[in-house]
Amino acid sequence: MTYLFLYIVGVILIWWTYRVGWLEAVKTVVKVIVPSVLIILFNIKAGRLLFKSPLVGLLSALPTSIFIFRGSLPLVSYINNWIENKVNNYDDSEVIDTDSVPLDD
Asked: What stretches pass through the bilayer (predicted)?
């Protein structure tokens, strides 16, 4: 069952990448993965500390997930800006500006 879920997620990611381009697909994946990982890690740790069971921590995820999601927005924005800067990092000094000349002249 897990392999079927991962297969479907993989097909959806490939389709999404084809539809919007790889840069937007990576940004969307970062927007989903970073808060999700932070929420899961926090609730497992809180479940162990408070309830001595990580399962109870995962079940109590809803109240804390809102705060963690909003708190992770600056980190997501930073990662997305870093990705965009790495992709758009080209030197303008090597670009030659030219004018178009019609074929009639």
From this structure: 5-22, 28-44, 56-79
Residue 17, Cα to own-chain centre: how many angstroms?
Answer: 13
Amino acid type, 48: R
Q: Can you give the pTM of this predicted structure? A: 0.57
As given in the structure block, the two tokens for residue 51 are 């309830």
Give me the amino acid identity at 89.
N
Would residue 90 be called left, alpha or beta, if left means φ above 0 and alpha means ψ between -120 and 50 degrees?
beta
Q: pLDDT band for position 70 (50/70/90)?
A: confident
From residue 83, alpha-carbon distances to 33, 44, 69 in Å are 15, 29, 20
